[in-house]
């Protein structure tokens, strides 16, 4: 693996840890398998890209992308809690619908951002290369998001949210509206994914309607790898684990892509397969499973 | 206090499995009463409790609390004045949260939950004091996950959590049925202590007639979704298990087949 590939893996690992934290929030903390993140990622990217092309400040554009993602989460939560649609299906419906909305927002399937100032520009102006600038920014974002989540999970609302994912009967008996917690949790999670999409769009230099495919599986892979590395006994360990897991997962992918036997080598098109295999292996291999603590 | 007016509950209505669990139930529970509810399986005991807690909503009739109609009030909203303990010791606590976090959730019942720190020094001190009264040594394990506790310990914790926010009514749904006799005794003595200390109105479903006689200031027997025996006051004095058995046999018009009732 070249240094360039390694740096790229670190950059992506840090950048996508925001998305992995969002997936962790729904899948693990809230126990809500939310597939709408495959839609909120390109949604965040699209809104951010459109804002930038309209001349809005790139940082404000990232925040707008985050809110757009949170909006999708809100829709999923609404379908699930108010219309009583199964959580998995609610997420899929939102994801499918978001495709059309994203096309409407962008007006075209792919929106390039070349030539515009991005969130990385001020850091680059300090004399860093674009890649190092992206790593610095993503590291700050990952640390901030991690600290925020750790703080949030210890507030009254965060405790109620974690308990909702654990024992709904107890939560209702303790006077907490489980519907409210699902609204808050799923919106917050998709907001993080939207933020991540917005940052990714600026880093990649474009927004594409198809850029969200596989987001949820990649996020889940990061969460599971993180749990394998650091057992998720406490919130602190779990959150750090997710960020580490995201980086390890991206490095594993980078390694796989640089892997070569004779004439055979993986192509980027094989990524989804590699990811699926990583997740399946982590979930089913019994020893791994016990270590991961998935099969409670 | 709590009043059920002509309450009806039908499961699977208009199907072959239609089951009238509660038919036209009228019941008034006064403040400070300890009502023990007995009856065989399927008599409607738990259904009645769930109707009061709001976990089930009735198909007819009204549920009143202090004269206020709460029939349409969601269960989590009723939780501000109703505390519940269920039969399954695992269902009252969140296993992945620590003991102090579980207690913090209970302490906030009936209040807004926003961005204040859930466990702070002040309420940790309070939790330590409360846990020390259980005599289980849990006050030294505040930061252990609740999932590490035994069923009996979790049920004691649940009981503490149920009364933490000073409810008016405590609903106990066979809360000792899944515990071994010794632990059950511990949980019952804790129940008595808390109910007396906090002057709670209590409704306890039990399969155990001895428990009903020992604890209930009023004993209700249910059968086929109706209250068939209701003894309190002078009548209640000197009532023995044998008397209850006799009543029960009369009501059913047959011998008792339920082992649980005989074994108690």
Q: Could you give a quick summary of the protein structure above?
A:
The complex is a heterodimer of chains A (296) and B (264). With 296 residues, chain A is mainly α. Chain A has 13 helices and 4 strands.
Describe the structure.
The complex is a heterodimer of chains A (296) and B (264). Chain A has helices at residues 3-29, 37-53, 58-81, 87-106, 121-124, 130-153, 156-166, 168-173, 178-204, 215-229, 235-258, 271-284, 286-292, and strands at 110-112, 206-208, 260-261, 264-265. With 296 residues, chain A is mostly helical. Chain A has a single domain, classed as ABC transporter involved in vitamin B12 uptake, BtuC, CATH 1.10.3470. In chain A, the strands form two sheets. Chain A has a two-stranded antiparallel ribbon with strand order 1-2. In chain A, α1 crosses α11, α2 packs antiparallel against α3 (58-81) and α2 packs across α9 (178-204). Chain B is α/β, with parallel strands linked by helices and 264 residues long. Chain B is built from ten helices and ten strands. A six-stranded mixed beta sheet of chain B has the order 6-7-8-3-9-10, with helices on both faces. A four-stranded antiparallel beta sheet of chain B has the order 2-1-4-5, with helices on one face. Chain B is globular. The interface between A and B is medium-sized, with 24 and 40 residues.
Helix and strand layout, with pairings?
The complex is a heterodimer of chains A (296) and B (264).
Chain A: H1 3-29, H2 37-53, H3 58-81, H4 87-106, E1 110-112, H5 121-124, H6 130-153, H7 156-166, H8 168-173, H9 178-204, E2 206-208, H10 215-229, H11 235-258, E3 260-261, E4 264-265, H12 271-284, H13 286-292
Antiparallel strand pairs in A: 1-2, 3-4
Helix pairs in contact in A: 1-6, 1-9, 1-10, 1-11, 2-3, 2-4, 2-9, 3-4, 3-9, 6-11, 7-9, 10-11, 10-12, 10-13, 12-13
Chain B: E1 2-11, E2 19-29, E3 34-38, H1 45-53, E4 60-65, E5 68-69, H2 75-78, E6 82-85, H3 99-107, H4 121-132, H5 151-164, E7 169-173, H6 181-198, E8 201-205, H7 209-215, E9 218-223, E10 226-232, H8 233-236, H9 241-252, H10 259-263
Helix pairs in contact in B: 3-5, 5-6
């Amino acid at each position: 693996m070249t240094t360039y590939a390694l740096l790229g893996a670190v950059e992506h690992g840090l950048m996508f840890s925001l998305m992995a934290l969002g997936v962790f929030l729904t899948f693990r903390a809230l126990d809500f398998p939310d597939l709408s993140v495959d839609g909120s990622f390109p949604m965040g990217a699209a809104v951010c890209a459109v804002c930038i092309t309209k001349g809005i400040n790139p940082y404000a554009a990232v925040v707008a992308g985050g809110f757009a993602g949170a909006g999708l989460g809100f829709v999923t939560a609404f379908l699930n809690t108010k219309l009583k649609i199964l959580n998995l299906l609610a997420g899929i419906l939102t994801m499918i619908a978001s495709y059309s909305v994203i096309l409407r927002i962008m007006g075209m399937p792919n929106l390039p951002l070349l030539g515009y100032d991005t969130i990385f520009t001020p850091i680059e102006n300090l004399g860093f290369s674009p890649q190092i600038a992206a790593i610095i920014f993503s590291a700050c974002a990952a640390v901030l998001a991690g600290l925020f989540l750790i703080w949030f999970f210890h507030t009254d609302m965060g405790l109620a949210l974690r308990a909702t994912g654990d024992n709904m009967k107890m939560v209702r008996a303790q006077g907490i509206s489980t519907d409210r917690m699902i609204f808050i949790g799923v919106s917050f999670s998709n907001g993080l994914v939207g933020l991540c999409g917005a940052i990714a769009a600026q880093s990649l230099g474009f927004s594409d309607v198809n850029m969200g495919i596989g987001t949820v599986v990649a996020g889940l892979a990061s969460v599971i790898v993180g749990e394998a590395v650091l057992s998720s006994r406490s919130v602190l360990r779990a959150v750090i684990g997710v960020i580490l897991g995201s980086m390890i997962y991206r490095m594993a992918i980078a390694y796989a892509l640089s892997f070569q036997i004779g004439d055979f080598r993986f192509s980027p098109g094989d990524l989804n397969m590699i990811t699926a295999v990583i997740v399946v292996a982590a979930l089913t291999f019994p020893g791994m499973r016990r270590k991961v603590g998935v099969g409670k | 206090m709590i009043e059920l007016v002509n309450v009806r509950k039908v499961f699977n209505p208009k199907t072959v499995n239609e089951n009238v669990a509660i038919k036209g139930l009228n019941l008034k529970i006064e403040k400070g009463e300890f009502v023990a509810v007995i009856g065989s399986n399927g008599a409607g005991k738990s259904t009645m409790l769930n109707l009061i807690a709001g976990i089930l909503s009735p198909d007819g009739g009204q549920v009143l609390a202090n004269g206020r109609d709460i029939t349409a009030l969601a269960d989590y909203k009723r939780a501000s004045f109703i505390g519940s303990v269920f039969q399954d010791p695992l269902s009252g606590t969140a296993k992945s949260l620590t003991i102090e976090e579980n207690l913090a959730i209970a302490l906030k019942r009936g209040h807004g939950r926003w961005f204040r720190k859930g466990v702070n020094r002040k309420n940790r001190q309070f939790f330590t004091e409360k846990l020390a009264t259980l005599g289980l040594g849990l006050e030294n394990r505040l930061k252990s996950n609740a999932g590490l506790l035994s069923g009996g310990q979790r049920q004691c914790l649940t009981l503490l959590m149920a009364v933490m926010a000073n409810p008016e009514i405590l609903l106990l749904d066979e809360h000792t049925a899944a515990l071994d006799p010794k632990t059950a005794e511990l949980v019952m003595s804790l129940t008595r202590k808390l109910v007396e200390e906090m002057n709670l109105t209590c409704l306890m479903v039990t399969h155990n007639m001895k428990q009903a006689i020992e604890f209930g200031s009023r004993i209700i027997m249910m059968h086929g979704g109706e209250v068939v025996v209701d003894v309190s006051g002078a009548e209640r004095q000197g009532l023995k298990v044998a008397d209850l058995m006799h009543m029960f046999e009369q009501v059913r018009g047959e011998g008792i087949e339920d082992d649980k009732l005989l074994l108690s």
